[in-house]
Amino acid sequence: MAKQLIDQFAATLPADKRASVYQSTKSTHEKRTKMLFDQFAEPNRLRALAGEIKQHVLEHLDTLLPAVEAKLQANGARVHWAATAEAACTAVLRIMQARGATKMVKAKTMVSEEIALAPFLEKHGIEALETDLGEFIVQIDHDHPSHIVRPIIHKNRREIATSFERHGLGAYNDDPQTITRRARQFLRQKYLQADVGLTGANFVSAESGRIVLVTNEGNSRFSLAAPPCHIVLVGIEKLVPRDRDLGLLLNLLARSATAQQLTVYTEFISGPKSAAQPDGPEEMHVIFVDNGRTEVLASECREILRCIRCGACMNVCPVYRQVSGHAYRSVYPGPVGAVLSPLLAGKKFPELADLPKASSLCGACHEVCPVNIPIPDLLLRLRDKAKREGARRAAAGTPPMGAWALLASQPAAWKAALFGSKIINYLPTKLLPVPPLRAWEDTRALPEMRGGEFRKWMKGRKKS
Amino acid sequence: MLNAERKPVTGKRVQLMATCLCDAIYDDVGRATVEVLEHAGCTVDFPEGQTCCGQPAFNGGDWAAARKVVRHAVRTFTGEDPVILPSGSCAAMLFHGASLAFEHEPDRVEVEALGRRTWELIDFLVNGLGITTWPGRFDAKIALHRSCHTRGTESIPAALTLLRSIPGVEVVEFGEVEQCCGFGGTFSVSFPNISTAMGTLKLAHLRAAQPDLLASVDMSCLMHLGGLAAHEGKPVKIMHVAQILRDALKHP
């Protein structure tokens, strides 16, 4: 019988990787919860409010996007619209070609992973260097991020030290400070040589056109300030209506993502160099990326676009903790990824239709989400969609429900089946080639079947 | 959002939905539910035509099949009396899951009306009937597993209130209470490796607290955890909160 790919992945994940993912997610989740509940009287009301603000954005993108375009232009930035991943990559390339630029430093942006920007630029002879330490390690290892906030959650420092040695960054040394210092020395030169700096945006204010970025390493500040040209790559859903909304969202984002009050660096970028602002890049471009978001917006799972990419859902998720991010075969892993990735896949939905099945529907993700996304409901909607569209990957391992539903809507048949179920107690179940039974009994004892006993007791009481 | 708005409970007549697990396996939990409700002064009706809440199909993604079963429940549990289930998960199916599955259906109103009078047993005792202490005696250290489908409901606070009020009961704390046991319905057989790993972690936390028994308001979690422990050759005692309440009454 076909098996679920994510469950298979879990079975083959080395124990040390599982342990490091588990420890790291658990500790971040616990710090996050303590910080939120210690510092705010009613954090859950803040989550609900933040959810309403982001939902408002989604419902008013038709007016907010033109408004932010006008603001950004007034601030001196150039605005580009990219309907697809290809269009976004091409827009970046054209900007670079127009300047004769060949060297880019990149801050961490998930949307650049989503559109596979770095490999595209490399194909066109452009060096696109990751400057976030985690992403830098991913890049020199030709690996993929396994967490949206901590891309190397699946690696330990010994592996990193080995990668640094292989990449010519000094002799093997797995002291974290040494690793960081070496990366810093290497990157410092690269910032100064770069023609273009590319960043994402955590938020864009529709009111002021301010681009808001949060980091802990300062690499985004260096990336956008040192080179003469700054490109911002951002999903169309990243708007906030007003600057004042940032107070709430930044407070929730840092606490949810890394259990900090605020990240070490928070940047508010209002445009390129100008008479009023003598520092900064001479040219600034903002590329708004759709890449399937409009279709998600039109779907019954639109709430997923509220996501502010904090990673709290993956930190708390018992399934993510067991499998790590690579199990999800997509850029966005964990609970948010199990909704977003299959939706962004568009026509390739069936290939990722098993992701929404990789959940016990425990609801921990909804409980921690800073923008209150009802992730379990969305996972359920996608399971229904997968079933209606006959996606085989989603169906693997789920017992067929049609016959069961027939039984459960006919009381006489149901009662007969209840009484008949006792026969299981006398069968050599361990020898039966029934896949769900095998899957259960491999690790769990079967309870004794007592079908109909309760009804007999109820009837007996009525008579007496 | 999980908490469907409910009318205040006025009468003392209730309808019991035993759930398929009590119907097929845990008959004593069904009996305890009836006796606990009767102790609280309720008259318990048991509609004979009842089957299941529809959750296996709903969670499995087969919403057409789930709707068939939910419609049967709507036809079976008629009238205005509260419908009581000894399961947070099946109750949530009726007051939350079903409203998702019927969003675009003509009979959504009837389905949601059933949801608004559906209660998980312990939530009903405390928040429906206003009972905050439980008489009798029960000598045990109890680890109360938070079954996930009671998140956002009052069931677990209610269970803690009643358990802590019983002389002899000590409710023990344990690590990572917010983490799922790994059952998840069909998830337990379609993702057996992950399900087992989650259950093993949960058992380790529960055992570390050295309780005399594991309790829950859902037998499904306990079936999974108890099954894992038995398979390991280190069985643990499992009890539904209703069984503890019923047994406490035996020792006045």
Structural write-up:
Chain A is of the alpha/beta class and 464 residues long. Chain A folds into three domains: 5-13 and 294-395, Alpha-helical ferredoxin (Fumarate Reductase Iron-sulfur Protein, Chain B, domain 2, Orthogonal Bundle); 40-291, NagB/RpiA/CoA transferase-like (Rossmann fold, 3-Layer(aba) Sandwich), CATH 3.40.50; 411-463, no CATH class. Helices cover 51% and strands 10% of the residues of chain A. In chain A, helix 2 (15-39) packs antiparallel against helix 12 (245-258) and helix 3 crosses helix 12. In chain B, helix 8 links the parallel strand 5 (140-144) and strand 6. The model of chain B has no long low-confidence stretch (mean pLDDT 96). Chain B is an alpha/beta fold. In chain B, helix 2 (27-39) crosses helix 12 (241-249) and helix 7 packs across helix 8. Chain B contains twelve helices and eight strands. Chains A and B meet through helix 1, helix 15, helix 18, helix 19 and helix 21 of A and helix 1, helix 2, helix 3, helix 4 and helix 5 of B.
Write a concise synopsis of the structure shown.
The complex is a heterodimer of chains A (464) and B (252). Chain A is α/β, with parallel strands linked by helices.
Fold topology:
The complex is a heterodimer of chains A (464) and B (252).
Chain A: H1 5-12, H2 15-39, H3 43-59, H4 61-74, E1 78-82, H5 85-98, E2 103-106, H6 110-114, H7 117-123, E3 127-130, H8 133-140, H9 157-166, H10 176-193, E4 196-199, E5 203-205, E6 211-215, H11 219-225, E7 229-235, E8 239-240, H12 245-258, E9 265-269, E10 283-289, H13 293-298, H14 312-316, H15 318-323, H16 334-344, H17 349-352, H18 364-368, H19 375-388, H20 392-395, H21 402-407, H22 411-420, H23 435-441, H24 453-463
Parallel strand pairs in A: 1-10, 2-3, 2-4, 4-7, 5-8, 7-10
Antiparallel strand pairs in A: 5-6, 6-9
Chain B: E1 13-16, H1 20-24, H2 27-39, E2 43-45, H3 55-60, H4 63-76, E3 83-85, H5 88-101, H6 108-116, E4 118-120, H7 121-128, E5 140-144, H8 155-165, E6 169-171, H9 187-190, H10 192-208, E7 213-216, H11 219-231, E8 238-240, H12 241-249
Helix pairs in contact in B: 2-12, 5-6, 7-8, 10-11
